[in-house]
Amino acid sequence: MITGRRTRFPMARNAFAELRYNPRRVVAVIVAIMISVGYLTASVTVLAGETKTFERTIIARVSETDVVVTVRTGDRAAQARLAAQVGKVAGVASADLSFLSRGWVSGSSDWVQQQSLPDNPKLRWTDLAEGRWPAGPGDIALGNVTARQLNLGVGDRITITDKNTSATLTVTGLTHQGDSLLSGLTLNSFVAPSFYTAVDSIRTSEQTEILVIGDGTLSRSQLAERVQAVTGGGARVETSGGMVQRLISQRTQGVYVFQLLLLVFGAVALLVGSIMIVNTFLILVAQRRRQIGLLRAVGGRRDHIRRGLLVEATAIGVIGSLLGVGLGVALSAVVAVVLDQTVSVPAGQVAAVAVVGVVIAVLSVLLPARRAAMIAPLEALRTVAGDAIGRRASFVRRAVPPALVVLGLAGIGLGFTGTLFALAYFIGGSFVCAVGLLAATGSYLPPLLRGLGSTLRRTGPTARLATDNTLRNPGRAAATGAALMLAVGLVVALQVGAESMKATADDNLDARYPIDVTVSMLTGPLPAGTVGDVAAISGITDAKGVRSTRVAIKAGGSTKRVLAQGPDAGALTTLWAPRPPITAEAVLADPYLLEDAGIKNGTRLTVTGRSGSVTLPVRGDPLAPTGGLVVAPSVLAALDTDAPLGAVWAKARQGADITALRSQLRTVAEPLTGAEVGGGLTAKLVYHTALDRLLAMSTMLLAVAVLIALVGVGNTLGLSVLERTRESALLRALGLQRRQLRWMLAIEAMLLSLAGAVIGIAAGAFFGWIGAYAVGAELNMANIRFSMSVPQTLGITAVAVVAGILASVLPGRRAAQATPVDALAET
């Protein structure tokens, strides 16, 4: 035999020839890399455009200014004098006051930011999309995204309320706000300067600035120095560029967190893809056993074989990465068109992503290359293909995965003890346990496949053959099942975590907000018809009027005005049983009010109203409104004999559409100046909306990993068809029809998909619950609940099984096309 010590083998040429003459074997690997790299490319490209768009919204307000003066005095006359002084500085062309405030929309819990419209048109950083600019203190122009979220248009009226005052304004126009992914995080609007500066102004500016434009004779830094000399220490003076950098560093954390989330899920997609690549190359090594043995027989060394596979993997990685970059840029261009953005391709990040794709392909082939290098030259003489990847696992390899699972469970158990580093134990334990479960797939997947196939085996020989085929190569089945299990498990873990957090948050919010819906007046009485209007809303099962008055409480020498409400005790018991009725022997107070005032539970509190005063023990109770008290009807009568209707408390139907109900409540409360809508449903909507958005986004991102795993199922079947050509020919010769052969492969795919989905769902449910418990414990939530959406879980299972069956269509057609004679001749 030739030793090959001095023989040169054109391994690179052999590798490229293999790709050229047998492209079907590696198409799925290229597709997996293309999807993974394309996903990451689209992520970094879209985020780059999103970041620029978000930065432009920050820069826009001061883009035409040279210097920004942040005024620290709230005196309007002093602000006007300072602006006049700045305007007289040599080198200043104009100096305009700009006011900024924030208030919530009456009838909802949405907060809107108001900015005064600059008198200088050059400083108006956006254009009108519709209508006109505000001209008086009763006008407002909303951003188009803000208007869409509030369901308002030109001509509609909106009531803006802060802690002291409220104003009902007419929407005169809509401005271009931009439709980026992060649009709407801040609801913004423009108001006329007279909204703040009129003598009878109803609003106070939370932030006042002087926007300075130079005449071009000085640099921005020189101009800032001259303005600073005029303002002294009573204001902060900075160039517009310095202010922009400061604001960007403060406000782009959400963008970075979002980018980190995208990259994490991209890493998951790459992990699933790498599992599939390893599995594919292991199968290819098994199929090319005789070819590799022949190369060894004619002088090829082990390092030749390894280098050949590495060259092949590098070529596949380069091709897949280039296609992925093209796919990702194309997807980001579509997103940019939809969001009306410019495409921004960060060349450095995209190049890094492409390199990662190539590296993943090369690293994934290391194990198969090592297996290939162990093939002996005598394998070239064997006519029956051996199982090159079904080697018997060593004791260490069989013992390590269970040990990791036990170690991970121990870490999770330490987290449940409530130790100082509980969250770290939960995270670390879950990770170690998950790695152990993935590594042990070959131990528990075959028994599951056997169990799932036991029922199908009774349906006929085709099903028996399919079940036996899935069990023939446990290593291949384990690798395919692990990829699908990882992808499905992550989706289920997110869903279970979100549903559990929803259920837990609902329970905690029920305790914090015993009343589902409250409609209250900050000042003045509610119209008598408000109770009937609220009761008539679809989704409200009952509503009761609550009388209220303004009272004074004295404790520890301090006096504070609060709102006291006294509902009918019988009605309260009817609505919120088994809660006991309010008695005349105690005063219920907002727990946060007691904490702020330094009042302990049980302290006797003197409450004084217009008609008299009472002294009763006080008890913190979430039934009391924020900063308020609740007393029995008889106590309220002693405090104020003519207490008017001040609020409506209502109970919502279980499972009512919170969004629709909230919209109807806003319609009722909107005409009532100073009305505030609150209660548990409003708070629940915030949690539900945030969790639903996170879940929807995460599920879409993880769908990439599921897609790659299903491509792996199809690839495994396709390569299995090539490997079993002789077997398929024999079956066809014995009478197996083409449709039976296709059905056999469909059953194999169904079993692999179903087994991977079942294990993924079980593991995902466990880790999702652990994650929800860890987060809930970190947030000091009580009674953390497990919750799981059965329809969503069944939907995931159905998608995995159906997609797996569809993945068998092409391999099935390929296997059924050849006649028995042709197939036997090929082998």
Briefly say what this structure is.
The protein is built from 28 helices and 19 strands. It has 827 residues and is α+β, with helices and mostly antiparallel strands. The longest helix has 44 residues, at 680-723.
Rg value: 35 Å
Percent of residues in helices? 55-70%
Instruction: Quote the average pLDDT.
Output: 76
Low-confidence stretches: 1-7, 383-392, 567-578
Number of helical runs?
A: 28
- Secondary-structure-derived class: alpha+beta
- N-to-C terminal Cα separation, in Å? 26 Å
How is the quaternary structure best described?
single chain
- Biggest β-sheet, characterized? 6 strands, mixed, barrel
Strands of the widest sheet, in order across it, are 2-3-8-5-7-6
**Number of extended strands:** 19
Domain module tally: 5
Q: How much of the polypeptide forms β-strand, as a percent range?
A: 15-25%
Shape: globular
